[in-house]
């Protein structure tokens, strides 16, 4: 037993071949230790490592599957958004066309109503001018008639004597009486 404990404490080369102990020669024991460790790891860790790798593989596959599903969902949403965008663009174009046609229609209606108003104003102007012309011509007629009547009366008064004057008045009264009977 003393050899065993001495070999733990000894830093020199291995003691005799018949004793048990640690070999502290790193270069000589490294390959043996590595192959033993690898053998043990492969034998016992093969299942664990295989399970770890299978779990990792499954997680990666699930992540890929989820990513594909998300991508498909995103593609569907993108297509829906594009469809909505096309619809909105079509609606906007329709509103724009309708707006332009509505503006044109309102412009034409305004022009038509303006022409009608101008036409009515022209008619009112012409009617006013005709009325004023008739009024002026009536005034001129009355004035001419009054002047002619005054001139005729002046001439009659200067030319007529009393007897002729009475006869003319009687004749005119008779004509007026006959006209009154015809109108009644």
UniProtKB/TrEMBL annotation:
The keyword Transport applies. Keywords: ATP synthesis, CF(0), Chloroplast, Coiled coil, Hydrogen ion transport, Ion transport, Membrane, Plastid, Thylakoid, Transmembrane, Transmembrane helix, Transport. It is found in: Membrane; Plastid, Chloroplast thylakoid membrane. Its main location: membrane. It is a single-pass membrane protein. It holds the Pfam family ATP-synt_B. The chain crosses the membrane at residues 26-49. The keyword Transferase does not apply. Residues 64-98 form a coiled coil. GO terms for molecular function: proton-transporting ATP synthase activity, rotational mechanism. InterPro entries: ATP_synth_b/b'su_bac/chlpt. GO terms for cellular component: chloroplast thylakoid membrane; proton-transporting ATP synthase complex. F-type ATPases have 2 components, F(1) - the catalytic core - and F(0) - the membrane proton channel. F(1) has five subunits: alpha(3), beta(3), gamma(1), delta(1), epsilon(1). F(0) has four main subunits: a(1), b(1), b'(1) and c(10-14). The alpha and beta chains form an alternating ring which encloses part of the gamma chain. F(1) is attached to F(0) by a central stalk formed by the gamma and epsilon chains, while a peripheral stalk is formed by the delta, b and b' chains. HAMAP family: ATP_synth_b_bprime. F(1)F(0) ATP synthase produces ATP from ADP in the presence of a proton or sodium gradient. F-type ATPases consist of two structural domains, F(1) containing the extramembraneous catalytic core and F(0) containing the membrane proton channel, linked together by a central stalk and a peripheral stalk. During catalysis, ATP synthesis in the catalytic domain of F(1) is coupled via a rotary mechanism of the central stalk subunits to proton translocation. Belongs to the ATPase B chain family. In plastids the F-type ATPase is also known as CF(1)CF(0). PANTHER family: ATP SYNTHASE SUBUNIT B, CHLOROPLASTIC. This is ATP synthase subunit b, chloroplastic. It comes from Argyranthemum frutescens. The lineage of its organism: Eukaryota, Viridiplantae, Streptophyta, Embryophyta, Tracheophyta. The gene is atpF.
